[in-house]
Design brief:
Elements (H helix, E strand, L loop, with lengths): L1 H6 L7 H4 L7 E5 L2 E4 L4 E4 L2 H4 L8 H11 L13 H13 L4 E7 L2 H18 L7 E5 L8 H5 L4 H4 L10 E3 L13 H19 L3 E6 L2 E2 L5 E2 L4 H12 L2 E5 L23 E4 L11 E6 H6 L20 H16 L2 H16 L8 E6 L4 E8 L4 E2 L6 H11 L2 E2 L6 E4 L7 H23 L5
Parallel strand pairs: 3-16, 5-6, 5-7, 7-10, 10-11
Antiparallel strand pairs: 1-2, 2-3, 4-12, 8-9, 11-12, 13-14, 14-15, 14-17
Helix pairs in contact: 4-12, 5-12, 9-10, 13-15, 14-15
Length: 449
């Protein structure tokens, strides 16, 4: 603990607050459980920030890393190749939305977004349309923390500090009626938001390189698009000659009940970013996927200046690609997608009980991607003040009862490893319910039961 306080600067963490309590220091994991250095067990209800698919210390995934390490751990992909990255690229193309046929590897989701933005930008230059260089983003979007990713993000608390460093974008509303100031129905809200995007594309398409979006917004509080909305955006982009970039870093690899969230609407993006669950949460591998049309625009002679000048030291790292291959093999063998769909139905039924708590203002679910938004007053939608740190208090209470739950502001999350059983999911939700009840009852006047 003393060395942690002395040497480590933790991400998204106010370090002064962090050092005022005993930190949870993880030593090992098994299945859906994590264990600290004192041997205490905790349910991992957020899949170690949405990455873990098949559980911690899965023997087959561990073995895949060991076997690869005995051959070679890493060699450069800059102008050279390696076996695991080739086989993994083939597997990714096989499961990705149709048309995405080329894989550019990197180390994190934010890097994948940077790659997709640069590909889109350079693509239009190569096509003789250099004026198409702006991007359309959505309100409350989050795509990572590098400068390009922050430029297409729109969560002020995270991004406002860096405003002068960012490039200009167009911003349109994301369709979710709970937060809509007009209090419209879901479909009416979606159409109102669509009208803004339609108008923007009709007026500014000649200046727009691409539209970038999350099919379910993650860091803004688990906000899914209404069914069919993504398909309408795809059609608009094609109509106006604008690239569609879908960020599936958080939603990919079964999290929403399909391999990718785009699959729910049968959407075929021009560019797609993936990461997190690709390796089962074991090693940092991510990628940007592109169509033949985009890839072929970059082909030319050595001196044509069409090369995509981008790369990372550990791009296509053999250890990461080997464990990703094993993760995808087990997805098929163990029918993980079907399991997620089954458990998600059970979770939806259990979530109904949470409406008994007056502090619960909204419950949002897509597969095993769940956000429970806490409010001071459900009728008026009055939020808890930021300074009250209600989500933080609930997270601390969960920890007391043996569960790790990292909230997003006042939104409590349930995003377990995909192999979670119904019994385990029920136990986690019981802890979450109890923790919300105990931390909010005095603030909103008790339960409704």
């Amino acid at each position: 603990m003393e060395k942690d306080f002395r040497y480590v600067w933790h991400p998204f963490t106010q370090m002064q607050d962090y050092q005022e309590q005993e930190p949870l220091i993880v030593e090992r994991g098994e299945g859906v459980m994590l264990y600290d250095v004192d041997g205490r067990a905790y349910y991992d209800s957020v899949a170690s920030i949405w990455t873990n698919t098949l559980g911690h210390a899965h023997p087959a995934l561990t073995e895949a890393i060991v076997k690869q390490a005995q051959l070679v751990a890493h060699s450069t992909l800059l102008g050279h190749a390696n076996v695991p990255s080739i086989l993994l690229a083939e597997q990714i193309v096989d499961i990705a939305p149709q048309g995405l046929s080329h894989v550019f590897f990197c180390d994190s989701g934010a890097e994948a977004v940077e790659i997709a933005l640069k590909m889109a930008y350079q693509y239009w230059q190569l096509k003789g349309r250099p004026e198409k260089k702006r991007f359309v983003k959505f309100v409350e979007a989050y795509h990572g923390d590098t400068i390009g990713a922050v430029s297409v993000g729109a969560i002020d608390r995270f991004h406002e500090t860096y405003r002068d460093m960012l490039f200009e974008t167009f911003k349109v509303p994301y369709p979710y009626c709970y937060r809509c100031p007009l209090s419209l129905s879901p479909r009416t809200c979606a159409h109102a938001c669509m009208d803004e995007l339609k108008t923007l594309l009709a007026e500014k398409a000649d200046a727009i390189a691409g539209v970038i979006l999350e099919p379910v917004q993650g860091s803004s509080g688990i906000i899914p698009m209404p069914d069919g909305y993504l398909r309408e955006i795809e059609a608009l982009c094609k109509e106006h000659g604008v690239l569609l970039i879908v960020d599936e870093v958080a939603t990919g690899f079964g999290r929403t009940g399909e391999m990718f969230a785009s699959d729910h609407d049968g959407v075929r993006p021009d560019l797609m970013t993936i990461g997190k669950g690709l390796t089962g949460g074991y090693l940092p591998v991510a990628a940007a996927l592109a169509t033949d049309e985009i890839y072929e625009a970059f082909l030319g002679t050595y001196d044509s200046n069409k090369t995509f000048y981008h790369g990372h030291t550990f791009t296509g790292n053999q250890l990461g690609c080997a464990v990703a291959l094993e993760n995808l093999r087990l997805f098929k063998e163990e029918r993980v997608i079907e399991h997620v769909q089954d458990v998600a139905t059970f979770v939806a039924e259990r979530l109904e009980k949470f409406w008994d708590l007056p502090a619960v203002g909204d419950i949002r679910q897509k597969g095993l991607f769940v956000g429970i938004e806490l409010v001071r007053d459900r009728e008026t939608r009055e939020p808890f003040a930021f300074e009250e740190r209600i989500g933080w208090h609930v997270g601390n209470r969960c920890r007391e009862y043996g569960m790790i739950m990292r909230p997003l502001g006042s939104v409590c999350l349930f995003i377990p490893p995909l192999i979670v059983t119904k019994e385990q999911a029920g136990a986690m939700l019981d802890i979450l319910y109890r923790s919300i009840e105990e931390e909010t009852s005095a603030r909103v006047g008790g339960t409704l039961r």
